[in-house]
Amino acid sequence: MTETTLGLLSIFVLSVFVGFEVISKVSPILHTPLMSGANAIHGVILVGSMIVLGTGHGAATTILGFLAVILATMNVVGGFVVTDRMLEMFKGRGGASRRAVEPPAGGDRP
Amino acid sequence: MTRMETLELIYLLCAVCFIVALKGLSSPKWARQGNLIGAAGMLVAIATTFAWPGLHKIWLIVIGIVIGTAVAVPAARMVKMTAIPQMVAAFNGVGGGAAALVSLADFNLSHRSAGIGTSAAVLFSVLIGGVSFTGSAVTFAKLQELMTGRPVVLPRQRLLNIVLAVAALVFVIWGLAAGSMVAAVLLCLAALVFGVLFVLPVGGADVPVVISLLNAFTGLAVAASGAVLRMPLLIIAGTLVGASGTLLTQLMATAMGRPLTNILFGAITAKPTTAVAEGATDRSVRTGTVDDVAILLAYARRVVVVPGYGLAVAQAQHTVHELAQLLEQRGVEVSYGIHPVAGRMPGHMNVLLAEANVPYEQLNEMDEVNGRMGQTDVVLVVGANDVVNPAARDQPGSPIYGMPIIDADHAQQIVFMKRSMRPGFAGIDNALLYDPKTTMLFGDAKDTLSKLVTAVKTA
Questions:
Q1: Strand-pair partners of B382
Q2: Which spans in B230-371 are helix H?
Q3: B439 in Cβ contact with B416 (< 8 Å)
Q4: What is the ipTM of this complex?
Q5: Which residue in B35, B62, B22, B23 sits closest to B46, CA to CA?
Q6: Average pLDDT, stretch B285-306?
Q7: Sign of the C-alpha dihedral computed for residues B435, B438, B442 and B446 taken in this order
Q8: Active site includes B386?
Q9: Which of B142, B149, B407, B416 is the most exposed place for a label (fewest CB within 10 A)?
């Protein structure tokens, strides 16, 4: 990419402020989904893994890149699925009474 | 517009999706949509990357993605809500590992020509990502009870830490000065060892703080990888996560009333203390019957339930919700008072109660509940202990002194549901158990709660 180092640094600094601003407004009820959702977001390293694997050459880079793609995919997919499962359960008064008659989700059994 | 510019524009859109995803979490109402927007952004980012100029080995990439998905989806779908903390730790660890690998792989291609800035970013990402990888693995093992949850301090661990830190410093300088791939690999190995040494001395109850910290680490490692690859998308996403992890770590340390350094390194520096419960045990407690408590609850105006991890262990979330619904039908105002560290990570108890269909309007934070504690008739403490221990407020010598607590002792009546008189995590006595306003109900939480439900029906 064409970004200059200074440009990247600006992006980093601004992101720090956006991050603190957005996160400090997160409802404490949702701190666990926040951790898990943030977790999924850093799975974006998958994009980097793909590029390193796909544009690199040589055995070492290929092996490292391939491992990175597997690990990053686990991070991204697992993170979003688990977060969605959690958030799906948060229902207001209306939703709760409707769902109360249903049995608990099948996946939660051991 | 060149193809590269188009890609960058799409990536920018994806970064916005991530911010929206986090913003959605400010209310349970929008949280799920937010997360789906984030997931959509991620999907677009991944799909777009296939159009990256000069991208080869597409089949290998696809195989990697398929393998990763095949492992992660069943794990994420099957995990029990009580086991969420270790699942988050596991997914966090693999992310950190991926970030370290990406930087290493890129360095392998460019190390001779890399500038000092790039080398620094590579080494940072390798160091932090490596620590996050093995640190999360140990965290997972502790929470999954594959190993002891007690702090483990190796012999001469302080010396070992210092040696490792010096070695890491040497590798960093070597890597910066010579752009050496060997230095980067050695640094990675040192980081992997350090991750283990870092988490071993942390006790099981404090591990959630570590998860949160390692989450921040992985975020920063990803941001550093983004700097290596010169990709704003990775920098933005990684930094957002770094910020969230840092804030949550701070918040948890405050909620536990202990400085972060004490949580992380307490076991290494601590002199062995004999944790004898202070106060005489000959004081008498008042044990109530289920029927007494049922009457107490049924004719109260306002009841606050204080759930602890014991509730989740007993799988009693559904039963406590049933009791709450029953009381509400009788016109009792019921709410839940959730301590920030109830459960195994910040907000974990809310997830467990939401799973039992408790509407989120009833889930109150500590401060909200405390403000109205004077007008509360009965506080029902289920499977919790330390979070209502007044010693945190008025005994400066107590290990938990300074930890914010739920002021259950300010209510008219307190009912404790406990298995035994055994103290909580902190291993200290709770004077509230002997308070004349307190009634004890011994036994399994789920069992006692279902008896209470039956008794309230006839009350």
A1: B307, B417
A2: 232-256, 260-269, 290-298, 309-313, 317-329, 348-355, 366-371
A3: yes
A4: 0.86
A5: B62
A6: 91
A7: negative
A8: yes
A9: B149
